[in-house]
Amino acid sequence: xxxxxxxxxxxxDFVERVSGSEEFRNEKQFASVxxxxxxxxxxxxxxxxxxxxxxxxxxxCLLERKARPxxxxxxxxxxxxxxLVGETTLARAxxxxxxxxxxxxxxxxxxxQTARYLSDLADDEAAIREWTRDAVMSCRAKLSLGDLPExxxxxxxxxxxx
Length: 162
What we know:
Structural class: mainly alpha
Number of helices: 7
Shape: globular
Number of strands: 0
Strand content: under 5%
Helix content: 55-70%
Largest sheet: none
Order of helices and strands: HHHHHHH
Low-confidence stretches: 153-162
Radius of gyration: 18 Å
């Protein structure tokens, strides 16, 4: 979940399948499958920690995925992180993909309004950082996550990292 989306519910914005589905036959067979799934999930958590270790790593990961019609949040999130790391052209391209979506629902229109606003700010990295900081703090409040921990609040919100 990317807190800059500023929503009041959990979202799953970066999804990768850990394994295929398995048909339940009996408890013994299922216990083995569940144990393997837990082991795979543990490895995936470590992979995510490495892939999303800092803002530059987040940018590389999100921007390596191509923009695809119907995946509005992939484009939105890639646009935000591109703006945060000063990749103005990439930010505008990803926000353009958001704007190209068919606005069939209020949430899409709202995302497009924000994408339009952020696209206009793309040349101003400080303004994008300020918008992101405000959105993250607002989302944290909506989700009752409390204040940022000191070790995160300082460096994460500093000019060099967010």
